[in-house]
Structures are given as C-alpha cells and as structure tokens.
Design goal:
The complex is a heterodimer of chains A (about 120) and B (about 110).
Chain A: E1 4-7, E2 10-14, E3 19-25, E4 32-37, E5 43-49, E6 55-58, E7 61-65, E8 71-76, E9 85-95, E10 98-106, E11 110-115
Parallel strand pairs in A: 2-11
Antiparallel strand pairs in A: 1-3, 3-8, 4-5, 4-9, 6-7, 7-8, 9-10, 9-11
Chain B: E1 4-7, E2 10-13, E3 19-25, E4 32-38, E5 44-51, E6 57-58, E7 67-73, E8 76-81, E9 90-96, E10 103-104, E11 108-112
Parallel strand pairs in B: 2-11
Antiparallel strand pairs in B: 1-3, 3-8, 4-5, 4-9, 5-6, 7-8, 9-10, 9-11
The chains are: A mainly beta (about 120), B mainly beta (about 110).
Amino acid sequence: SQELEQSPQSLIVQEGKNLTINCTSSKTLYGLYWYKQKYGEGLIFLMMLQKGGEEKSHEKITAKLDEKKQQSSLHITASQPSHAGIYLCGADSNRAGGTSYGKLTFGQGTILTVHP
Amino acid sequence: GAVVSQHPSWVICKSGTSVKIECRSLDFQATTMFWYRQFPKQSLMLMATSNEGSKATYEQGVEKDKFLINHASLTLSTLTVTSAHPEDSSFYICSARPEYEQYFGPGTRLTVT
C-alpha cells in the first residue's frame, strides 16, 4: 500500500519566518492534496497537485510536486499565527488495478506553531 | 470551494446504543462520498466508500455490520455506528468531491460512555 511520510513532524517558528513541510511517497503520486486542520475540526482544502513539476500558490502558501511525482513540498512565506495548525498531505490511493480517486491515504501530519 | 456539512458535530451515547451521523454536500451532487476516522493525535484512516444507490465498500478491517452506510440521495450519506462501544469513540469525518478536488466535512466527535 502507498505510504506518505511527512517531515518535520512538528515545527515551531517565529512570526514572519518562512518554512517548508515535505511529503514523500513510496510510490508515484497521481493526486496529491494538502490540507490544514485545527485540532478537533475538519480539514480545510489548500491545494491539489497532479502533474509532475506542478506548482500552485494561494496567498502565502505554495505547493510543489516534483518531476518524478514522489515528493511534494508546502512552503509558507512570512508565516503568521493564523497559519498555525496541523498540515496533512494526502494522496489518491494507488492500488493494484489502478488509481482509486477519492480514497485518500494521509501522512501523519506536521504540527505548525507560529509564535507572535 | 465546495461545502460539505456533517451533523451532529458531537454526540455522546451509552455503550450498546446506535448513533447516526449525516454527511451532506451542500452545493454539489456526489455519487460517491467517503468516511474517515481519526483517533487522537493520529492521521485520518479511510473506513469506507459510500455509493449512491448501491452498497458501500469497506476498507480491510472495518466491520460493515457495525458501521452501516446509506447513501440515499446525491447529497446525503449516513453512517450509523451500531451497538457502540467505548473503543468506537473517535472523530468521524466525511468527504466528497465535485470534480477532482476533495472536500471534507467539519467532523463528528463521538464519545461512547
């Protein structure tokens, strides 16, 4: 089965600093999602990447998928306390017989703390 | 983005009783919805795929007779936890996708006493 490894597991930064979270897959990624979660709440959709080399940005958050489609990074520029939370990468399951879209496998999450 | 809602947001029930959780797509139709479970300080695990008009498909290790799923319309899927036990206490989250992007509901916190 596909496994996603996120690093770091936790991150503490000072407000205004840039940061990067990585997500590495054991298999080729066919659909890679980034979400943000506050503890005990639902997931907020950030971005979805599908093509090798693809890069998307929304406000101060940029996500990239490498050419080989096995690693993705999430970069936050000039972090703010509002960026604090748990960041999860998820991928459409790549199983025998083809990709099962919608059945996401998740990384273990990265806990981000931003100190004002 | 698309909106997915869940009801209730939290529920407490006694051991042995059943609890129903609703998942609705508010601004799109979804022939398929997904149910996940999240234990404290852990990531999400897919439980089952809810299919409108047909039987749900369950992930390995998930008891289909315990977690009953009904997808009665294109905007509503329900998860019923039957004969709940304390070990079923968890955060249940549903998701749906209007096209390629996957949106999640706010989750339902279930506590079984």
